[in-house]
């Protein structure tokens, strides 16, 4: 083989090797983990807020994601930390965080030997919260006057205690007018006929007169019989 042919073969082999190296380098860069492959979003899960981070690294290199609540450029609170392995379709991890409207969060991604930085810009939550607060009524309801408590019935007392003795009548009450005094039982007939206390004397006199009259009749008849015999 001539020198020219040998030099040409070496040159062709070098070109092929360089092309292969460039291809391998390009593929290596394509498979390397990069911060641009990560994205974050604030969402609602029903009435609760969540923060999601998605990794679209096709190489699936493990990366640690840490979420911080920010205030005036400083970390206020660490929300959580999770590991994610990306995929070409995208792998999503979720942090439970009941975020407030317009809150700011810093999301840091670290994959050893590949990336160690924050997702830019910081995540800002929506202006509307997940759970809507109940609006107060436009007109307050009319105040209702408090109900008057009903007095409870007092417990019944025994008959001996509840019945107090009747007061004795006074002299003015016990003495009835003379015309209203009921007559004794024995004098009820006299009261009905209008007789007074002299009725007994009159009855005695009448009886005596009856006796005298009877005697006079007896003697008169006897005298008449004597005259008739003579």
Explain what you see.
The protein has helices spanning 3-31, 159-162, 171-174, 188-193, 199-229, and strands at 38-45, 48-55, 62-71, 74-85, 91-96, 104-111, 115-118, 123-124. Helix content is 32%, strand content 25%. The chain is of the alpha+beta class and 230 residues long. Strands 3, 4, 6, 7 and 8 form a 5-stranded antiparallel β-sheet that branches. Strands 1-2-5 form a 3-stranded antiparallel β-sheet, with no helix packed on it. It has a domain at 35-125: SoxY domain (Immunoglobulin-like), CATH 2.60.40.2470. Residues 1-32 form the signal peptide. It comes from Streptomyces qaidamensis. This is LPXTG cell wall anchor domain-containing protein. The chain crosses the membrane at residues 201-221. Residues 150-159, 169-178 have a biased composition (Low complexity).
List the helices and strands and how they pair.
Blueprint: H1 3-31, E1 38-45, E2 48-55, E3 62-71, E4 74-85, E5 91-96, E6 104-111, E7 115-118, E8 123-124, H2 159-162, H3 171-174, H4 188-193, H5 199-229
Antiparallel strand pairs: 1-2, 2-5, 3-4, 3-6, 6-7, 6-8
Number of separate helices: 5
Q: How would you classify the quaternary structure? A: single chain
Gyration radius from CA atoms, angstroms: 68 Å
The CATH class assignment of the domain at 35-125 is Mainly Beta
Largest sheet, if any?
5 strands, antiparallel
Distance from N terminus to C terminus (CA atoms, Å) equals: 237 Å
What's the architecture of the domain at 35-125 in CATH terms? Sandwich
Name of the CATH homologous superfamily of the domain at 35-125: SoxY domain
Mean pLDDT: 75
**Low-pLDDT residue intervals, each spanning 5 or more residues:** 20-30, 174-179, 186-193
* Strand segment count: 8
Strand content: 25-35%
CATH fold-level name of the domain at 35-125: Immunoglobulin-like
Helix content: 25-40%
Strand and helix order: HEEEEEEEEHHHH
The coarse overall form would be rod-shaped
Helix and strand composition category: alpha+beta
Organism: Streptomyces qaidamensis
Biased composition (Low complexity): 150-159, 169-178
Biased composition (Pro residues): 137-149
Keywords: Membrane, Signal, Transmembrane, Transmembrane helix
């Amino acid at each position: 083989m001539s020198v020219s042919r040998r030099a040409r073969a070496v040159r062709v082999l070098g070109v092929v090797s360089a092309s292969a190296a460039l291809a391998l380098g390009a593929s290596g860069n394509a498979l390397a983990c990069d911060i641009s492959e990560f994205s974050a979003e604030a969402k609602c899960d029903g009435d609760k807020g969540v923060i999601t981070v998605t990794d679209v690294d096709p190489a699936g290199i493990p990366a640690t994601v840490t979420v911080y609540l920010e205030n005036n450029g400083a970390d206020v609170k660490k929300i959580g930390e999770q590991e994610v392995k990306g995929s070409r379709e995208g792998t999503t991890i979720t942090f439970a965080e009941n975020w407030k409207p317009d809150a700011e969060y810093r999301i840091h991604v670290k994959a050893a030997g590949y990336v160690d930085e924050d997702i830019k810009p910081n995540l800002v939550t929506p202006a509307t919260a997940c759970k809507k607060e109940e609006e107060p009524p436009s007109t307050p309801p009319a105040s209702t006057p408090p109900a008057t408590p009903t007095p409870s019935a007092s417990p019944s007392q025994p008959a001996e205690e509840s019945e107090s003795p009747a007061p004795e009548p006074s002299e003015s009450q016990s003495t009835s007018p003379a015309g209203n005094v009921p007559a004794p039982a024995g004098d009820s007939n006299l009261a009905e006929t209008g007789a007074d206390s002299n009725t007994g004397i009159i009855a005695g006199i009448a009886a005596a007169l009856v006796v005298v009259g009877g005697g006079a009749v007896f003697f008169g008849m006897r005298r008449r019989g004597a005259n008739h015999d003579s």
